[in-house]
Amino acid sequence: MLKQTLAQTTTGRLSTISTKVIKINRHYYSGKTTKQSNEIIHVRIRPSDNRSINDHSNIPSTNRNITTSGYLFENFQSKNELSTIYNNDRDYNPKTASLRWNTTGITVAGISGVGGRANNQLNTPYDAVVDYSYTLYVVDQGNNRVQKYMRNNSVGTTIAGLENGTAGSSSNQLNSPANVLVDFNGNLYITDILNNRVQYWPNGSSTGTTIAGNATGVAGNSNNLLYSPYGMARDLNTGTLYIADYDNHRIMSYASGASSGVVVAGGNGSGLNNTQLYNPIGLHFDSLSNSLLIANYGSNTVVRWVLGDSNWTLLAGGSNGLSGNTSTLLRNPRDVTLDPMGNMYILDRSNHRVQLYMAGESVGKTIAGVSGIYGNDSNLLNTPRSVELDSQLNLYISDRSNHRIQKFVRY
Description:
- The chain is mainly beta.
- It has strands at residues 2-8, 23-28, 39-47, 53-59, 66-68, 71-74, 106-110, 127-130, 136-140, 145-149, 157-161, 177-182, 188-192, 197-201, 209-213, 229-234, 241-245, 250-254, 262-266, 280-286, 291-296, 301-306, 313-317, 333-338, 344-348, 353-357, 365-369, 386-389, 395-399, 404-408.
- The chain folds into 2 domains: 2-74, no CATH class; 106-408, TolB, C-terminal domain (Neuraminidase), CATH 2.120.10.
- It contains no helices and 30 strands.
- This is NHL repeat containing protein.
């Protein structure tokens, strides 16, 4: 059983407007103490009288709910900084933790094989994100909108873009959105591909603000412009936003509030050299190694680029760009993420599967879909686009051509 002990906390009662820092050590009954990762993430703090307040805490990436001084600290996970709640009834061991999933998926949004604009339908969904309360956010790309699904509800609500699906470049419109990040307060960051911009959409607002790229849709390769932005990742410590600038073959870094970005990976044209990227599309920020995991769509690889370095190291796929459907090859990977143990999950688009790579290994295992076979049966996928993990390591997959979001339950 994993036991949490409070190493440091602030004094006094927490107010609804205060910001406190809390450090937590993780201890095992064996006496082993894990190294603190010092990752700042958002947590929800709920007093005993159920009033809700927000705070920032400095806690490790794997954690359980804890109670102290009459407050319940509930963990928060995002697409790029996942925190896991482990069961109370077993010892936690990263090497023996159960990593098995049902081979048949459950449709949690959309209607299988039927695309549309109704609130219970999707049209070629591109991305799906699950927050701490299991609220589901879906980028409904073909309808140029983002839909929000409350837990166990199959009817979505449009929270960004127009409900009727009309594309455009106005502040209340999107044009082929691709990825979404959701912060603790429900604010959205959306890559708007055909408008060549990233939109910040405050929770409850009917309009977005351009925070990267050009508001009117102009594409370019200068540091204040983007050309078909797709994937994003965000450093929760600094607020820095990383953007996969697909057609510029580079990763851009935007400091919080900056109007122009900095090239942190690629930018040397498309190619297979380890100083180049080839249509980077999926992105994950690994705070423990201060690096970016990049899905290279054009070279059929996933690579790690340590920030500050001038080249990448290969994590998955063929070194010469070779594509395939074996356990060591990929075909047009679209997304990548890590779990708290450092295991890697790759959305292998044109092989219609999700591959699991155990930490440090270069051979993958298919955990969702059937390699090389597409369809709309519950065990199949059809040109999927993204993979997401919730706090229990259940998989959520944007099954694009089946117009649905599939959940594969871990057991």
